[in-house]
């Protein structure tokens, strides 16, 4: 399998989007549709008006997704936390897992950095830790093809297998 590109970013919800009670559902549905066609996989967390998203795929597809996100009137103050190459996709066949932490906080209750959800202070260390936490929790996810399935397969890439180009 060839290398995959990844991006992790955070953003804030706009006032207009926050006033619509269906915004999160719309983002989930649109993400699954768009990501399926472009081969993007990953996850989105939301809490108290802030988003965190990790996605992976072809480098051009990731760049196009980032461009679309910057044009999306539901997001503001987008901050790229990290980007680079990984040897294999971590989230095979998971076109977009979405967690509203106000409804799913129990999944992360022992992890203070997630509970506080201070995403603008996060770096790649927190991103990698989050991926590791999710694998240990055996969190389930939903895809259009398979209603519920274990998030990580036996081929899960551990922290040490990430290529972080900005580390010395």
TrEMBL record:
GO terms for molecular function: blue light photoreceptor activity; FAD binding. PROSITE patterns: BLUF. It comes from the Bacteria. Residues 4-97 form the BLUF domain. InterPro entries: Acylphosphatase-like_dom_sf (IPR036046), BLUF_domain (IPR007024). This is Sensors of blue-light using FAD.
């Amino acid at each position: 399998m060839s290398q995959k590109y990844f991006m992790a970013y955070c953003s804030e919800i706009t006032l207009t989007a926050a006033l619509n009670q269906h915004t999160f559902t719309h983002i989930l549905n649109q993400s699954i549709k768009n990501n399926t066609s472009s081969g993007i996989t990953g996850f989105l967390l939301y809490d108290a008006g802030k988003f965190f998203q990790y996605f992976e795929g072809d480098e051009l597809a990731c760049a196009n997704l980032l461009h679309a996100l910057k044009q999306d009137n539901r997001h503001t103050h987008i901050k790229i936390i990290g980007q680079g190459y990984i040897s294999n996709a971590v989230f095979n066949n998971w076109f977009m897992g979405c967690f509203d932490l106000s409804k799913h906080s129990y999944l992360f209750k022992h992890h203070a950095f997630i509970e506080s959800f201070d995403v603008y202070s996060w770096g790649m260390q927190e991103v990698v830790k989050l991926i590791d936490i999710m694998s240990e929790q055996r969190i389930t996810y939903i895809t259009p093809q398979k209603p519920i399935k274990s998030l990580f397969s036996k081929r899960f890439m551990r922290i040490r297998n990430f290529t972080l180009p900005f580390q010395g």
